[in-house]
User: What shape does this take?
Amino acid sequence: MKYPIGIQTFCKIREDGYVYVDKTAMVYQLVTTGTIYFLSRPRRFGKSLLVSTLEAYYLGRKELFEGLAIAELEKDWLEYPVFKMDFNGDVFAHPGVLKDKIEAYISKWEVIYGKDSLDLTTGDRFKGVLERAWKQTGRRAVVLIDEYDKPILDALDTPQEATNRDLLKGLYSTFKSADAALQFVLLTGVTKFSQVSVFSGFNQPKDISMDARFETLCGITQREIEHYFAEPIAALTEKYQCSVEEMKDMLRQQYDGYHFSDKLTGIYNPFSVLNAFDQTRISDFWYATGTPTYLEKLLKHNHEQINELTGKYYVPAMFVDYKADVEKPLPMIYQSGYLTIKDYDMRHDRYLLDFPNNEVRQGFLTMIANSYLKPKNDD
Assistant: This one.
């Protein structure tokens, strides 16, 4: 079995025979029930793969979806003009980096669809490209933006943050004025910034981050673990000299426990559990990839003890929207995946937040210790 660790391209996974947990039935539901979406998930949770899957779908790559659920649902397989922006690879803490990145994307598309000399601003140029693509192809444009918030998170708590925020606001405001030319829009990221920041100026996207219909769109469920990965579970069982049920329980304690709606469907971190299967060992893989610097910056401003945040009930407004208030890091901690929903009080519309699993608890406490205590050695 080949595990797609670090591979975020749908066509590569399908063409090269990597294991793929089929999410395409939900992808079809997504594209047929709405137009502009926003999805927040922690890092290493499969957001980039979702974007790549949608890109392949809208390019009409029918052959890549053979044998998957969507092959029985989609009949037309039309090709649309797709505009994909990926903010994963760059560091946007320095002046000019974000502007150059956006300009490079738009310039590339202007080569394909032409340029109007009257389009002066970045937003105007992007709108012009979308509208010309619609007219030239006869099909509306698809816009996919991966890690839309990274330019702000990279520059958090620095003078560059305001500049990056304004650049993104100008870019995203295009979606309102170019609405007629748009077939589908998806923005993914870790944080949901409040409506007064980057999302102001254009039609509010439909936030599906806590929508029960799409809570398993990224990540792996218990049913999927047992369906797709019986072979590596058996290998771990042999190595750790335990029963299959005991191994499943160990995996749940270590990697399961994320919940993204009041339905409370347990979800595994895909990066961690795939690494465990690949290396045939249970370890803290997610934390080893590094702590987000923006989270460390926020925690330095925080006056609450971390144990005062965990194991408490909160109304959604307290942890869903990030209001850019460094004195209240709870939304960022939740959206980054260090806390998750553990229970739902329907009568009072409150959610219990706590650590998802042992891996995250251990990693978070280690980060806190290093940040606050600044130890001279590993003790």
